[in-house]
Amino acid sequence: MAWIYALLIFIAGAIVGAFAMRLSNKGLKQQKELKKELDKSKYELEQFRQELVDHFAQSSELLDNIAKDYSKLYEHMAKTSTELMPNLPEQDNPFARRISTLEAVKDAKQTQDKQPRDYANGATGLLKDQKPESVADEPKPETEESKAS
């Protein structure tokens, strides 16, 4: 009779175990689906962010082109207004006050376009106790200490 009770308890345990596995398996399945959706959402968010960055880069480039074209147009109008109407008083020429500022901007832009050099002409004397010839010949700028003396 003990074997019968043991067999019945074993069968009951197997049924309860199968039922528990079925319940926990649904949770695991649901968890895997949620993880999959989360990964998909993260990927879509990254794609959206990249598209947004690309959009702003392209917009910046387009705005830069518009600004350059507007500057060229304004410069053209200012130049032709002075060429076509040289006797027009300055107060009647709407571009007259901007012509001088355009020239200043042009000069500043030309100096900014020059690339800095990453080399020196001749020896610089950085690794020696001697000063280079080109620097030694130049006048030294006044400092607070030299002004006080």
TrEMBL record:
<keyword id="KW-1003">Cell membrane</keyword>
<dbReference type="InterPro" id="IPR009386">
    <property type="entry name" value="ZapG-like"/>
</dbReference>
<dbReference type="Pfam" id="PF06295">
    <property type="entry name" value="ZapG-like"/>
</dbReference>
<feature type="region of interest" description="Disordered">
    <location>
        <begin position="106"/>
        <end position="149"/>
    </location>
</feature>
<keyword id="KW-0472">Membrane</keyword>
<protein>
    <recommendedName>
        <fullName>Z-ring associated protein G</fullName>
    </recommendedName>
</protein>
<keyword id="KW-0133">Cell shape</keyword>
<dbReference type="GO" id="GO:0008360">
    <property type="term" value="P:regulation of cell shape"/>
</dbReference>
<feature type="compositionally biased region" description="Basic and acidic residues">
    <location>
        <begin position="128"/>
        <end position="149"/>
    </location>
</feature>
<keyword id="KW-0132">Cell division</keyword>
<keyword id="KW-0997">Cell inner membrane</keyword>
<keyword id="KW-0131">Cell cycle</keyword>
<keyword id="KW-1133">Transmembrane helix</keyword>
<dbReference type="GO" id="GO:0005886">
    <property type="term" value="C:plasma membrane"/>
</dbReference>
<dbReference type="GO" id="GO:0051301">
    <property type="term" value="P:cell division"/>
</dbReference>
<feature type="compositionally biased region" description="Basic and acidic residues">
    <location>
        <begin position="106"/>
        <end position="117"/>
    </location>
</feature>
<comment type="similarity">
    <text>Belongs to the ZapG family.</text>
</comment>
<keyword id="KW-0812">Transmembrane</keyword>
